[in-house]
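Chapter summary example.
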Amino acid sequence: MRSVALGAGLVMLLLTALAANADEPWKEKLAAAMADTARPAADRARDANRRPLETLEFFRFRDDMKVLELFPGSGWYTRLLAPVLAERGTLYLGLGTGRVARLIDQTPSLQSAEVLDVGAELEPTDQQGVYALGPVSFWQDDLDLVLTFRNLHNLNAAGRENLNDAVFEALRPGGLYGVVDHTRRHMEPDSPQNRRRADPVQAIEETLRSGFEFVGYSDLHYRTADDLSLEVGDERVSGRTDRFTLLFRKPSG
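The structure predicted for these 253 residues follows.
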C-alpha cells in the first residue's frame, strides 16, 4: 500500500509540474524579444531594473491574451509585448500613441500591434506635467488584460477616474488590470519633487471605486534606496525609483 501511495504521489507531482509548464512558451518568446539585436541598447540597459518577466508573471500574462497597453510612450514594453502576442494573442495600444505608431510603421516585428483611435485628448492643467482626460472608450469589451506603466501620475483625479472607468468597460468579466507607477508618500501634498509620483493607497481606492476587485500587490519594484523625496528624474534616483505594482480584476459576476 505504501509503494502504491508513493507511486500515486509521484504521478501527481509530475502532472502538477507539467501543468505548471503548460504556459511557459511565452517566457521563451519574451527572452527572444529581449535579446533582439534590433532592440535599442538603452532599452536593454533597463531590463534589470524593470524586470519584465517577473512583472508580467505577476500580472498573469499569457501569450494567447487580448492585451491593451495604455500610454505606450516610446514603446519600451511594446517592443516586448508585440512579438510575444503576435502568434496567439492580440496587442492593442491606446492613448498617447503618436511615437509608438511611428515605431510600428518602421519595425516589422511590431506590426501585429493595433493602435486604437479613441479620439481622446490630454488637456494641460494648472499643474506642470499633469493632464486632464475626459470620458473615453476603447471600443472593446472582451480584453483579458490592460497594462499601464508609470502613467497614472500624469493625470488629475478626474482623468484617472475616466481612465479607470474606460478600462473597466474594455475588460471581459474576470479580466485583469495591471498598474505600475513611481511611489509617493501617502497623502503627501503636491510639490515639484513628487509631481511624477503617485500615492499607491489613493490608486487602490480610486480603482476600487470604478468597480474593480483588488487582487494583490508586488514588491518587485520596491527600492529601499529611494526615500521618495526626490523628483524621479533626479540623477540620484533616476532609473532606480521605488515603484508600486498593483493588480486588479473586473468581477466575474
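To summarize the output: The longest helix spans residues 2-20.
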